[in-house]
Design a protein that fits this description.
Elements: E1 7-17, E2 25-36, E3 47-58, E4 63-68, E5 77-82, E6 86-91, E7 100-105, E8 115-122, E9 127-132, E10 135-141, E11 154-156, E12 169-178, H1 184-192, E13 212-213, H2 215-223, E14 226-227, E15 241-242, H3 244-252, E16 255-256
């Protein structure tokens, strides 16, 4: 089975420039959003994750980047900006005091550049984690005894409450919802795969993220040699195959990452 298609509603503009050409194009929202009908793919579960790229044009608060059900409802999920300079994510438990929140304080200016955000709800460890640009910035513990689900649509760039839309004004791209708790290495891989030259913590050819391009990375590249069926992190020149061109790029970055 596949997840149902989302429906774009309200004021928006398609085909906008995303964080990098690798990510393709995105949608800019202004009092608009995307409604994804409820399904098993979008329902907050014991182990699930949500990630996206986002850039605010106007920093308003509260502003919802994504969410499922009302904030205080059992089993709800939210990615939200509060106070104009604070962004966080979390899932609500059976009571307001028993959620799984994890957030980070940041500056209003920093929200107005592209960032990669990821929230991970890990029922196996009882931890909720929030990542910004591949870096863990917040975590919170929760009890599975307090776990709750909802059957609401999944909203992007809008709060799904009549009269309280709390729109996010800016660009959102590459929203992904996983029915598993993705790991820190995978989140960093996704962040670095955007291939933005100025990205901190990313170094072309550093496939194992040990801050150095060396023989271990050549080993990983050779292990992935050949055509890529989908995203392939060893495909450094994004030509759909791990080949000699990628070896050349890896060697050009040989040594410690700056």
């Amino acid at each position: 089975t596949t997840a149902p298609d989302g429906v774009v509603i309200g004021t928006h503009a398609r085909n906008q420039s995303s964080a990098s050409p690798v990510l393709g194009r995105c949608i800019a929202f202004d009092d608009g959003g995307v409604r994804v009908p409820f399904s098993e793919w979008t329902q907050p579960s014991a182990n699930f994750s949500v990630e996206m790229w986002a850039k605010a044009v106007a920093v308003t608060a509260p502003a919802h980047l994504a969410g499922s059900s009302r904030d205080l409802s059992s089993g709800s999920f939210k990615f939200v900006i509060y106070g104009g300079n604070w962004i966080g994510a979390g899932r609500q438990g059976t009571t307001p005091s028993n959620g799984a929140d994890a957030g980070t304080a940041t500056t209003a200016e920093s929200l107005q550049v592209w960032h990669h955000y990821a929230y991970v709800h890990d029922g196996n460890s009882g931890l909720a984690r929030f990542f910004v640009d591949g870096r863990l910035v917040g975590s919170g513990s929760f009890s599975m005894d307090d776990f709750a689900t909802n059957s609401s649509d999944f909203m992007i760039a809008l709060h799904d409450v009549p009269g309280f839309p709390y729109p996010f004004r800016g660009m959102i791209d590459e929203v992904a919802f996983y029915q598993r708790a993705i790991g820190a290495d995978e989140i960093l891989d996704h962040y670095c795969a955007a291939s933005i030259p100025s990205l901190p913590r990313c170094c072309l050819g550093d496939l194992n993220h040990d801050h150095s391009v060396d023989g271990a990375d050549i080993g990983l590249l050779l292990y992935n040699w050949g055509s890529c069926d989908s995203v392939c992190l060893a495909d450094l020149n994004s030509d759909g195959s791990v080949n000699g061109g990628d070896i050349g790029l890896l060697l050009s970055g040989w040594g410690p990452c700056s």
